[in-house]
Amino acid sequence: MTRPTLLFISQFAQPGTYNKALWRRVQGEDDETVPILALMDALAVTPAVNVRTIRAHEGERLPDDLGGIDAVILGGSFASVADDYPWQRAIARFLAAWRATGKPLLGICGGHQIMTTVLGGRVERSPHGPEFGSLPVTPTTAGAAHPLFEGFEDGALFHFGNFDRVVEPSAGSVVLATRPNLPAAALDHGGAWVSVQFHPEITCDRMATCWAELDPSKAAAYRFIPGCERMILNFIRSAGLLDDAVRPRLTDERLDQVP
Asked: Which end of the chain is more exposed for a tag (fewer CB within 10 A), N or C?
């Protein structure tokens, strides 16, 4: 049986704008596709799903043939959507083509923001300064009933690290979660597209390393959050990549430990 394919697109940072040496202490260094693949293995996704990765910020070409891809996760970025780097424009073009397929997409942090702009929404620099740390989110009524938040209680913690924020979601989008300074911390854009301002996929050490160069005083604001990665599994399940025939194969001790 052919396994479905999940594509993870990394848009980590514009090359040359950060200190690579600071990342030598964490898994995969500045290549976030390494911990993403480790996460998929920890969630027991990889036996049933073919996980592809592309480092778009490094100039790796995004696929033109979308027929062999079943779902996409678009990662976060040090870059602002306002930077308009060539690789950001390439991602925007890819997203426009992907939207036409009607297939699922999860955007994370910078992915949340570029998805919003591609669909006609608005992103601005937050006047409150950066949102950082391991912080609680408040699901809306729609969010509490949404598959993305299955298994999460009101006030569940997630890692944040963003200067920009969505201030005007695209037409037809539904807000799934908020924070005091984030009116759209999670969105359902319709058409199987969802996005979150926070990071359910990343560990506290990587988040702290993000601030090692920007503002080391903020690095201590992150803590270990067991189970936040379940949101990635929720997306993969809701995308139909793990159907009823496959799920029993994944009921092992690794999956059982995910809340």
From this structure: N
